[in-house]
Amino acid sequence: MDRIVVIGAGLTAANAVETLREEGYTGELTVIGAEPVLPYERPPLSKDVLQGNSEFDVLHDARWYGERDVRVITGTEATEIDLEVRRVTLGTGETLAYDALLIATGADPRVPSIPGGERALTLRTHADEQALRATFTDAGQLVTIGGGWIGLEVAASARQAGMEVTVLERGEVPLANVLGREIAEHLRGLHEAHGVTILTGVEALEIGDGGVVTSAGRVAADAVLAAIGVEPTTELAAAAGLAVTDGVVADTHFLTSDPHVWAAGDAALVTHATLGPLRSEHWDNAIRQGKAVARAILGQDVAYDWQPYIFTDQFEFSMEYVGHASPSDSVEIRGDLDGNEFIAYWLDDAGVITAAMNVGIWDVNDALRDLIGTVVNPTELTDLR
Questions:
Q1: Which of 84, 143, 284, 305 is at 20 to 30 A from 224, Cα to Cα?
Q2: pTM for the complete prediction?
Q3: Per-residue DSSP letters for 30-72?
Q4: What is the pLDDT of residues 18-51, one digit of tens each?
């Protein structure tokens, strides 16, 4: 093949083009990105960059792409994919022919479908981070709608910047379905100890001047962040006629319903070798899928078979999580929960480890990854120290 086009200019795209060149592909290589900046990593936007502890930076500069003969078109959207003639049309009117197409369009933040929902800030892009950080003032009031990873990370960052922070959570405890009740309660207590107000069992009903109307009353706010998840960006793929459900449908080798189109990253619903169709919205997955899909495009025998991985930093709570647990799994904790130095194991009814998390104990995640899928006696589990 002589022409590869990548739609989307995020972490998946950057790793894909790097791997394509490393693996010896010498043909035309074009990346199309809607944002006006080169590809970058998103996790710092809710942590160090938002806190002002580090500067925003792109993954590679323009010289790096130039040296690898990669054309990166920024600030431009792809508006049409013609599968029959293998052509992508851009918003500028330019058309790009391809022999292989990679869809890595990412995801878009959900906007609350309530009166005034359009007033809420979201956090997905560098521009979003700048707009959110501009609201950080001493004694200012931030309300976060949603108590998931982004909602809690931003809550921690805003509180450390001197903001008064309230988190609105629909469930009984933030992240209980992911972490289990005991660890979720611990994390909630940590936030509250740092002055974050967490209101559970409440829904946002309206965003107006100076606050949010909730099912439990009005909460004052100078700024409101909607952190209620994302939707995969699939409109372009769907309009082209590709199979789309909760993401662009792809097989274990990232190939879509068209033999010349692959999909990876946040926008892709890829068939995991053991877990089935799975769409992951995390940093590690973007990197791994970017590298793997590049090799798949070149005809190498690769498959989506690694365990999902996530990490977070919130006050003294720093963790790595590997695997894919179910809310019905039991949780075994080993170590010092109160001191934020412990390991948690998730086990299904058959005693199989489905996931594990290390908090404040480092250089053990590879060992935990090796345990996923094995049957253990819970009495033999330790904190690996």
A1: 284
A2: 0.95
A3: EEE-SSSS----SGGGGTHHHHTSS----SS-HHHHHHTT-EE
A4: 999 999 999 999 999 999 999 999 999 999 999 9
